[in-house]
Write a structure and sequence with these properties.
single chain, alpha/beta, 5-stranded parallel β-sheet, 7 helices
């Protein structure tokens, strides 16, 4: 009997990455979970990532330190306030200050390096192009382009073993993702979404990510297990 193939899954600790990891498992892969400790202000999400990796039976979970505060340029990596007024969403047409420069490119590059080293040819990422904050590195065009890059940039790709970048949540709404978590039997309360945690390990309830999360549960018609400091 053949052992199940490996997939490297980017597990941030958020709801989307948790569902993406569960989908990888459902697709028949053994999960190598990769989380990046980039000194983000929502460090509590790394604790969520550890819970999720354990709950999903990851073969291995690597938390890789990569301090992006050395670059700054984002409300998540510099002394810039996280917006709490609902501004900066995709509907505004702008890219919000919570965008971390080239984050998904950096993270997928790290995942690609581990995948090639581990003999995995599949990578999973929980990006979403519908209910999101307007980040350019969440678009289908970006995922497709990175898949092409991976083939050009690696020994495996050059030798005819291309990599597949799976973005199973790409065209789902946040409500769809909440329903998918329920279908997969996941405890959504294990995940963490807030960009600016309130004291007592509470979601602030006011940042863009909290608003999207709460809206997703509401529209899905499912109970929201999240502890908010202020109800969105």
């Amino acid at each position: 009997m053949h052992e199940q193939p490996l997939a490297v899954v980017l597990v941030s600790g958020g709801l989307d990455s948790m569902v993406a990891a569960a989908r990888a498992r459902e697709d028949g892969f053994r999960v190598l979970a990769l989380s990046v400790d980039y000194n983000q202000r929502h460090q509590v999400e790394l604790a969520a990532a550890r819970r999720i990796a354990t709950a999903l039976g990851a073969v291995r979970h690597v938390v890789l330190p990569l301090d992006l505060t050395a670059f700054g340029g984002s409300a998540l990596t510099a002394a810039i306030d996280v917006p709490k007024d609902g501004a900066g969403t995709a509907e505004d047409g702008g890219i919000p200050v919570t965008y971390v420069p080239a984050r998904n490119t950096i993270f997928l590059s790290l995942a690609l390096g581990w995948a090639e080293a581990a003999g995995a040819r599949d990578l999973y990422i929980g990006v979403n192009a519908l209910d999101y904050s307007g980040y350019p590195d969440c678009r289908p065009e970006f995922i497709a382009a990175f898949e092409g890059l991976a083939e050009l940039a690696t020994k495996a790709g050059v030798e005819g073993e291309p990599f597949r970048i799976h973005a199973p949540l790409q065209h789902l709404t946040k409500a769809d993702i909440v329903r998918e978590a329920a279908r997969l039997g996941l405890d959504a309360g294990m995940s963490w979404s807030c960009y600016d945690p309130a004291p007592g390990h509470l979601h602030c309830g006011l940042c863009d990510s909290c608003r999207l999360r709460a809206k997703g549960f509401e529209e899905a018609g499912l109970p929201d297990p999240t502890a908010y400091a202020v109800r969105p």
